[in-house]
Amino acid sequence: GRGWLPVPDPAGKRILFRHLGRVEDLDMSQYELNDGESKLGQGKSYAMGGDLRTSTAESKVPSPEKQVAKKDAAIEDLEKQLEKLNHDLEEAKEDEDKAKKKAEKLKKENEELEDEVKALKQTLKDHDASMPDGSQGFEFGKRIFQCLQEPPGVGYRFTPQFSDKNKDGSGPAFPEVFEADAVCHGPQAMFVHCTTGRGWLPLTDPKGSKLLFKHIGKTEDVDLSKWQFNDGEEASERSRPGWFAAGNTAK
């Protein structure tokens, strides 16, 4: 009951917590649970072989020789970084136009990543009403997601787990969208349920390193005439040239 904890950092670039599994499936004797005590002013605690050992400010101070060696290593590392930066600067000067185009591309990719992170945060924030106190007003409802994977796209799952795949090839592919009405965290990733009844779709790959779908918004807030809905065709049909026609909004 102490409150909520964020999974990624504010920029969405660093994972702060790793999902280990359901409590009933874990051997809790292998882990150290947070006891709620303040960590301010304390040393770093860790468990080894079942014994709790504490590293404090009273630890032995490194010898002057080791301190000098450490500083020398840091200076050497900085010199290498400076050398690399100078090399990159020279390359940029040699082809300024190429550098500008690269900067524009990186800026666009960064904006897209920021939008994807915001969408994923919004999906996590708008969980269903069965969550603990504090989640009221953030119900999932019905939402539109766009597939980011080129044909053959992403396959449906009968349940929220990667191994339970529907192999009929009817899953969405870029730039198709679909409507979801539920969200569930499976053993490896978060899945959303398609309102067509075809099954579940994972928002990321099993390692959580690649985003497969982008959250567009709540259904009532999206102009559906601007999007191509997944119509259940097999991947072989969608891979034909010209299969996607702008303005084709058939569901």
List keywords for this structure.
251 residues, two-stranded antiparallel ribbon, 3 helices, 15% strand, disordered C terminus
Unreliable spans are: 45-58, 240-251
Note the run of SSEs as H and E. EEHHEEEEEH
Strand count: 7
Q: Report the end-to-end length measured between terminal Cα atoms.
A: 44 Å
Class per helix and strand makeup = alpha+beta
In DSSP terms, counting alpha (H) and pi (I) runs of 4 or more, how many helices? Answer: 3
Oligomer: single chain
Q: Strand percentage, roughly? A: 15-25%
Q: Which bin fits the share of residues in helices?
A: 25-40%
On the 0 to 100 scale, the average pLDDT is 80
Shape: extended
Please describe the biggest sheet, giving its number of strands, its sense, and whether it closes into a barrel. Answer: 5 strands, antiparallel
Radius of gyration: 25 Å
Q: Name the strands of the widest sheet in spatial order.
A: 6-5-4-3-7
Describe this structure as you would to a colleague.
This protein is α+β, with helices and mostly antiparallel strands. 26% of the residues lie in helices and 15% in strands. The chain has helices at residues 64-94, 96-125, 235-238; strands spanning 44-48, 51-55, 143-147, 177-185, 190-194, 200-202, 213-218. The strands form two sheets. It has a five-stranded antiparallel beta sheet. Strands 1-2 form a two-stranded antiparallel sheet. Mean pLDDT is 80; it is low at 45-58 and 240-251.
